[in-house]
Each structure stands twice: as C-alpha cells, then as structure tokens.
Design a protein that fits this description.
By secondary structure, the protein is an alpha/beta fold. Helices cover 28% and strands 21% of the residues. The N terminus is likely disordered.
C-alpha cells in the first residue's frame, strides 16, 4: 500500500506519515493544506549542485524559476492516478507524479550512478549497457482484434498472450521492489480529436524527465481528468533495469519490448535506453491512426502517421521531411526562417498536420553551435543528455567523444526551440514533400524532382546508406532500406501507408523532391559529404519557389535512376555538385567507375523492392531504377 506520495511541484513531495501508517489518501484539500511542504534541504542541495556545475550566464532569477517548488493547484487528480497505480498492483513507498525538472534532477543525482549536471545546465545520464534501440527484441501480442491488421514478420514478431502476461508480471514484481517510482501522464499527439493518453511508470528519474520532454504535456484541467476521457491511458511499464527471462516463450535475449493493443499496455525489460519508450509510443500511433476517425473512410480521409519532421513558412506552406537516422531530418527542419512543428513524428489527417511529440530527440555527435545553433542552444536546464562524454571538473561536454556510443542524444521540450510552433499543429496541408537520403555510394543527385509514382517507389523503398565499419581500410558503404522511412515502427503493411500517402498527395497536391545529404564526387572514402551549406541552400530553393519556377527544359533525366536533376547551378550550388557523374569526373573518377557503382546501387534497389512489388501498381514498379 502507498504511504507517501511525491507531489509534482514539491521537491520533497511526500505524503505525510510514516511507512507503516494507514494508507488512506487524504482529500485534495487536506493534501494541499497540510500533507505537503517545501523541502529547504533538498532545494539547498540542488542549488549547490548547480553552483558546482558552473552554470555561467544564469541569473539568480532564472535559477529560482527553474527550481520553482511552489505547490500548484490542489484540485489536480492525484487520487485518480494513485487509484490506478494501486489497481496495477504496484506497492511502493514513494510515487513522483509529473514532477518538475528540478525534482527529477535531484532524484537522478541522488540515486542514478553516472548522472551529473553539465555546464549548460542539462542533466547528463547513462543508459547502461544498451545505448540504442533493440529492434530484434520487439514483440506484438497476437490478439484476435488486431491479428488481421498487423504486418507480421521480422518487423512485428508475434508474442503469445501468456508470455506477455508473464513479462508484465515480472515487470510489476520488479517495480514493486523499488522504494520509489515515477509516473508520467501525457499525450501522444497535439490534436485533441486524435491524441492518445499515455501513462509511463518507471523506476528511473531519467526516464521520467525524458518522457515529460517527449510527450505532449497535459494542462492542469486535462491532468485532473486524465482517466475520465474517452479512452483509458496506454500504460508503459518500464522495468528496463531488470532483465527478461530468456526461458519465457518468445524471448531470444534478456531484452524485451512488447506491446498489447488489446490491453493498451507496453512492457519493457532488459534495456534502459529511453528511446524505446519514445518509439513505443510511435508504434502505438502507427497502429491507431489509420483507424481514425473511422477505418471505413477513404485513404485520403484517414490519419496517416509519418516518420518525418515538419515545419511551416510565413505563408503557411507546410514541408514534410521524411528520412532515416543520420539523413538530416532534425537538422534541416530546424530552420530560423520557418516555424518548427516537430522534428521526428507527425500525423497528416483530414484537417491538417500535428506533431505526435512534445519534444525533440536529436543526435549530438559532432554538434557545434555554428552548425546547429537551435539544437545547441536547446541543451540547457530541463534537457537530458544521453551517454555523452564530459569533463567531470568543469562540466564541459565533448560532443566528439564517442567512447560510450556514437548514438549520443539530447531530449528537450519543443518550447526550447525559439521558433517552435506551439501548439504543434496546423490546419494547413503539406505543400512540399522532401524525401531525405544519405547516399554513401555517391550516386544520387543532391536534389531531384519526383513524379507521383517515383514518390511512391522511394517512399516504400526508404533508402539510405551507412558506412560498413570504422576500421582502417573499410571503405565500402552498406545500403539500408526501411519501408516508409520507418519500418521498425510500422504495424500495418507498408502498402497501407503508401496508399494513404498517394491518396493525400492526389487530393491536396504537393511537389516532391528527393534530397541526398550524402556523398558527392565518389562514394565514402573517395568523395566528400555534401556540405550542409549546400543542402540548406537547396532546401531554401524548394521553399522560396526557385525550383518550382524552373521550366522543364532546365531539368534533365538521370540515366539508370530516371531522376530529374537540374541542368545548371541552383543558388550558390554549382552544377558540378548537382550532377553526380560530373562530380565524379571533377574528382578524377572515370565514367566507367561511376556507371559500375550506379548499376550496383540500382540492383540493390531492385532486390529490396521485390518484397513490395506484388502490392504496387505497374506504374510505381516502373518508377524505380532500370539496369
């Protein structure tokens, strides 16, 4: 039974009474009047920790505001939250509910090894052994209501209901051994008619602050009625500190990330990487959105989840940026001339576009203020820095330090971006669709204009490339294909999402471009990565109408791939950069070498598309490369 309740706005938020007191929750008025008090001791300790971190440039007012511990509205429904926690068979001493950053900083610094406040004010944390997602350990429970909808296979691996309950019981048993738990309530989505209530129960303060940054925060009124809505919250049991039992049917390792759509629950075991929760919510949205507002509506009228960033210009022109990790999705959508809707996950519905998330989760490897000022400046008090290296004496972060992982990250609220659009939604439909790829083979043009059939082909393909290894002499790139630019998070077959995208493009109209942020003048190890300066200018050319105004005579079809590329310079980007074979020649590469590499990449495209061809029209199949 619960004997102490940690109130969100109070540092030492405790339910009055000892551990052995009768576990009767007082009324809201009683709690506000007598059961909660400020903790000067904790506040003093946290202030000392901030001072030790040398937070240069902070005023005393800013520090006080950041660490505000004033008691908030007593009417908020803590009892409702605790009723459900008790229904879930969780029996712990302390529960911290939607706590402010200062409280969670204090908890992480006290109880989570490796946590520290760095010089910018952000909280640096360690995610343990796992520093990235574990897609091979993701499972979807086989349930009659959703069985015919799910794209079963290597992306969505079946888990029987009994095994899910076994993992759930294991997670709850572990959480019950903890002295304190953290509960976060928030929304998946900014649009009221489509959003999904999400409740996170975790044993780490780091996870709580991460999800408070990444979920859409509820208002005080919404928080009070969080469980009284049309649907019950989707609950994430994060017991990632504790391993799964390998002997449980369906388990292939000590890590398990399992989702039950029927129970509206997700269970995490054996991984502390916070990104599993973020992408778990995206997986849930990928299943639910195509069913809304009604699964019987035409594809153009249903909600389409997108693994994409989005921004909007002063003339309300919305751009959607599809792209896999490392292609520039976050970087290119953070444009000072345009308002950011979001950097990673969106929904395109009948009345516009909305962001699924309340924050951003950006890579930090190699980060500098010169290259990405908006992201760099968002790393401050309230942000979570994950697995970065830093000087323990000065608190200075070394963003080039990859000793723990190359997948160093920062999670911060959307409001930390100065030009963020909040609420993160718009009633306007996309005007530009931009498919991002990082081609390490050096074959695809830095920009090409796509036909509707090419949009479908490249959307379903979801191509990018990565370097095979970092050992000396390993120069061969490796192609990566991820359907709809987000295969690990898809629940329905890719053709379902592709059909919806095609219908929306046809209904609302939008120009589409393929932008290669990868190599020019040769593949990895020979050529150079296309400069961010050039890529930004090409994106500007999309937004300011430069490319739309080009007559057809200024475009030329690229052999093999059939992509239309510019004949001449675009802004300050020289045509030798825009035309891959010319870039190879300028770098001293032979035409034969280019053709050989182009045919190799084309063959990889064709091989990958075999799995999807049976559900595509002949026009879409013909839109791919031809060898």
């Amino acid at each position: 039974m619960l004997s102490r309740l940690a109130r969100p706005a109070v540092a030492a938020t405790r339910f009055a009474g000892s551990r052995h007191a009768t576990a009767t929750l007082p009324t809201a008025t009683q709690r506000h009047a007598s059961s909660f008090s400020k903790s000067d001791k904790v506040k003093k300790q946290l202030m000392e920790q901030l001072a030790a971190a040398e937070l240069k440039g902070w005023t005393s007012e800013e520090v006080k505001a950041a660490l505000s511990m004033e008691i908030q509205d007593p009417g908020m429904n803590y009892k409702g939250m605790m009723d459900q926690v008790n229904e879930l068979s969780l029996d712990v001493d302390e529960v911290y509910y939607n706590s402010p950053a200062g409280v969670l900083y204090d908890q992480a610094l006290r109880y989570e090894e490796g946590s520290a406040i760095v010089s910018s004010g952000a909280l640096a944390v360690k995610s343990g052994k796992k520093t990235g997602r574990s897609p091979l350990d993701k499972r979807i429970v086989y349930e009659e209501a959703s069985a015919d909808d799910v794209w079963w296979g290597k992306v969505n691996i079946q888990l029987d209901y009994k095994s899910f309950l076994t993992n759930r019981e294991r997670a709850v048993d572990y959480l019950n051994t903890r002295k304190r738990l953290y509960v976060v309530d928030g929304w998946g989505g900014w649009e009221e008619d489509y959003r999904v209530p999400v409740r996170v129960i975790t044993s780490r303060a780091y996870h709580a602050l991460f999800m408070q940054n990444m979920l859409v925060p509820p208002t005080a009124a919404e928080q009070a009625d969080f469980e009284a809505g049309k649907v019950k919250p989707f609950v994430i049991f994060n017991a990632g500190v504790f391993p799964a039992n390998r002997q449980t049917s369906g388990m292939t390792s000590s890590t398990s990330v399992a989702v039950s759509f029927k129970r509206r629950e997700m269970v995490i075991l054996g991984t502390q990487y916070a990104g599993e929760m973020k992408k778990g919510v995206f997986t849930i949205m990928n299943y639910l959105m195509p069913l809304m507002p009604n699964r019987d509506l035409p594809p153009a009228d249903r909600a389409l989840p997108l693994h994409a960033s989005a921004n909007i210009g002063p003339d309300n022109d919305v751009s959607i940026f599809f792209g896999l990790s490392g292609t520039g999705k976050t970087t290119l959508s953070a444009d000072p001339k345009r308002a950011l809707i979001g950097d990673d996950e969106h929904v395109w519905h009948a009345n516009g576009v909305f962001n699924i998330e309340g924050g951003c989760y950006a890579k930090t490897v190699g980060l500098t203020r010169e290259k990405e000022p908006e992201i760099y400046d968002a790393i401050r008090f309230g942000s979570i820095l994950e697995n970065v290296g830093f000087d323990e004496m000065t608190g200075q972060v070394d963003y080039d330090d990859v000793s723990i992982t190359e997948n160093t990250r920062v999670a911060y609220p959307l409001k930390f971006i100065p030009n963020a659009k909040i609420p993160a939604k718009t009633e306007h439909h996309p005007k530009q669709i931009i498919l991002l790829t990082c081609d390490a083979f050096g074959i695809l043009p830095p920009i090409s204009k796509l036909t509707p059939d090419q949009v479908m082909y490249h959307f379903i393909s979801g191509y990018t490339a990565k370097v095979a290894g970092t050992e000396e002499g390993v120069l061969e790139p490796e192609a990566t294909f991820s359907a709809c630019f987000g295969a690990p998070f898809l629940v329905w077959h890719p053709s379902v999402y592709a059909e919806m995208l095609a219908a929306k493009l046809d209904k609302y109209g939008a120009t589409a471009y393929l932008v290669n942020t990868g190599w020019v003048g040769g593949g990895y190890g020979v050529g150079d990565r296309c400069s961010l300066k050039y890529t930004r200018q090409l994106i500007d050319a999309i937004h300011d109408g430069t490319l739309a105004d080009l007559p057809e005579s200024e475009w030329e079809e690229m052999p093999i791939f059939g992509l239309k590329m510019p004949k001449n310079d675009i802004k300050d980007v020289p045509k030798e950069i825009l035309r891959p074979e010319e870039a190879w020649a300028q770098a001293g590469q032979s035409p034969e070498a280019f053709q050989k590499q182009a045919k190799h990449l084309a063959n990889l495209f064709q091989k990958n598309f075999v799995d999807f061809a049976d559900k595509c029209s002949k026009e879409v199949k013909a839109a791919g490369p031809k060898v």
